[in-house]
Design brief:
single chain, 136 residues, mainly beta, Fumarylacetoacetate hydrolase, domain 2, four-stranded mixed sheet, 6 strands
Length: 136
């Protein structure tokens, strides 16, 4: 069961932390605690402010797969996750941006309805986490 937080946990990724599809994720020499999670990324395409639940999806350009690598030791040095998620070349994304109109017909934007999308992470033939779009 997914518990909806009272306030969303938001962190940003700097441009230098991003890696194109099939690019190498590079573990910095300062840490041995590189961890990874397969995730869906929601890409905001239009500036917005004070969006409501009813119009929030109007600002979304699309969705893509994201390999969210984190240096867990650096993440725990601060109360916010940003420091552990922004080392150069630690966030692989792609291969494509999928717009809302390209989603399957049963992919409805609803908190209660399944979006019909799932992704599984595999690293060196070992299974990692499985993510569904319902957790966005």
């Amino acid at each position: 069961m997914v518990v909806t937080p009272t306030f969303p946990e938001i962190f940003f990724r700097s441009a230098t932390s991003l890696v194109a599809h099939n690019g190498a994720i590079i573990r910095p020499q300062c840490s041995t605690m590189l961890d990874y999670e397969g995730e869906f990324a929601c890409v905001i395409g239009t500036a917005c402010r004070h969006a409501s639940e009813g119009n929030a999806l109007d600002f979304v350009a699309g969705y893509m797969l994201f390999n969210d690598s984190t240096l867990r030791d650096y993440q725990r040095f601060a109360s916010q996750w940003t420091i552990g998620k922004n080392f150069d070349s630690t966030g692989a994304m792609g291969p494509e941006l999928v717009t809302a109109d390209e989603l399957p017909p049963d992919a409805e934007a609803s908190k209660d309805a399944p979006l019909g999308l799932a992704a599984a992470l595999t690293v060196s033939s070992a299974s990692g986490n499985t993510e569904t779009a319902n957790s966005l």
